[in-house]
Design goal:
Elements lengths: L6 E3 L1 H6 L4 E3 L3 H6 L6 E2 L5 H14 L1 H12 L3 H13 L6 E4 L5 H12 L4 E4 L2 H12 L6 E6 L5 H10 L7 H5 L17 H13 L7 E4 L4 E2 L2 E2 L2 H9 L2 E5 L2 H12 L4 H10 L1 H4 L1 H12 L3 H20 L4 E5 L5 H10 L8
Parallel strand pairs: 1-5, 2-3, 2-4, 4-5, 6-7, 6-10, 10-11
Antiparallel strand pairs: 8-9
Helix pairs in contact: 3-4, 7-10, 8-17, 12-16, 13-15, 15-16
């Protein structure tokens, strides 16, 4: 096996293949964006890659390769042990390896795997080819449907309940780790980069290929610091929408459930970030309510502002209102299915 070059697979075939997915780029490259589910096994650290790259440009390939060997040599045993461990977790399946262009780094790790009699496949064109594939997904036509509604109507919970019923759903906020407002990051993990958000969205859409409808929440183009890709955003703006309606008290209770458990100081800071839009009186009232732990009063101050923003955005989009009263997310999902407003199991 050690003398056989590893197979190189196109993006779709590589993604569909079994086996551990190992990204051998640097930690910084991996953090910026990677294939969801991949593990980082860097051939070089960030400084090492920069040094080798500088040598390549200044002194040529041979000098760069020699320096690369010096940097990697002491780590070969540990890397080989990690490859063996990953392969043992998926008996019979090849290691799937990629780097930036599918060049020397992934080929070098494939060589090491071959010395250990471990089968490996490479992604043709590497992560750069994967990124082209990702962006192309957003230009494909998708059967999008939007779920809208004012703040506190429980749109995300309803979408997740619909997904449990077999409806095709992409959770834009869940993939972004953000609820979409000034308060949206509270209590959630750090957001991915916009690049990695695109990676996650593309795979989510790919997993729903063939569904009669794909439901998303009606969002603004920014979900926190993550940006919805332009091709998908254009399709969202043209998609039909349902506008969920709930009583005010129900909406307030929903917001208190989410934000009443957050750090009051972080709530106050988020309020100050939108002070200019809230206005001085409403900002002062909200901050006073937060200081008093009166979450209902604090949320009431926010709702007027967010309702006006939502109504303004809705005016540019045709939507069908649907009154859900006090129904739980699960009961509301069943109602939408029974009324034929949402297509059933995919």
């Amino acid at each position: 096996m050690s003398g056989t070059a590893p197979d190189r697979l196109a993006v779709e075939a590589f993604l569909a293949a079994p086996g551990p997915l190992l990204d051998v780029r640097t930690p910084a490259e991996f953090a910026q964006g990677h294939i969801p589910g991949a593990l980082n096994l860097p051939l070089f650290d960030d400084a090492g890659r920069a040094e080798v790259g500088t040598l390549y440009k200044g002194q040529g390939r041979q000098a760069a390769v020699l320096r690369g060997l010096a940097l990697v040599g002491p780590r070969l045993e540990a890397m080989g042990a990690e490859l063996t461990r990953r392969a043992a977790a998926s008996p019979g399946a090849p290691l799937r390896l990629l780097c930036w262009r599918g060049g020397m780094r992934s080929a070098s790790v494939a060589w090491l795997a071959a010395q250990l009699d471990l089968p490996a496949v490479l992604m043709e064109g590497g992560y750069k080819a994967y990124r082209r594939w990702v962006l192309a997904q957003f230009e494909r036509p998708w059967p999008l449907r939007l779920l809208g509604g004012r703040t506190g109507t429980g749109k995300t919970d309803l979408l997740l309940a619909l997904a449990e019923c077999g409806v095709a759903v992409v959770d834009l906020e869940g993939l972004a780790h953000h609820r979409g407002s000034s308060f949206g990051a509270l209590g959630l993990p750090p957001q991915p980069s916009s690049e990695h958000y695109e990676n996650r969205l593309a795979l989510a859409l790919r997993g729903l290929e063939g569904a009669p409808e794909i439901w998303l929440e009606a969002e603004s183009v920014q979900v926190g610091r993550c940006r919805i890709p332009a091709g998908l955003w254009r399709q969202m703006k043209a998609a039909p929408a349902l506008a969920v309606q709930r009583p005010l008290e129900h909406r307030l209770a929903q917001l208190v459930r989410i934000y009443g458990v957050q750090d009051p100081q972080e709530l106050a800071e988020a309020t100050r970030r939108i002070a200019r839009r809230l206005g001085p009186q409403r900002t002062a009232a909200a901050l006073e309510a937060i200081a008093a732990r009166d979450w209902t009063a604090a949320c009431r101050q926010m709702l007027d502002y967010y309702d006006r923003c939502y109504d303004h955005d809705l005016s540019a989009h045709t939507s069908q209102p649907v009154e859900l009263g006090e129904l739980s997310a699960e009961a509301a999902a069943q109602l939408l299915l029974q009324r034929g407003l949402v297509a059933g199991s995919r």
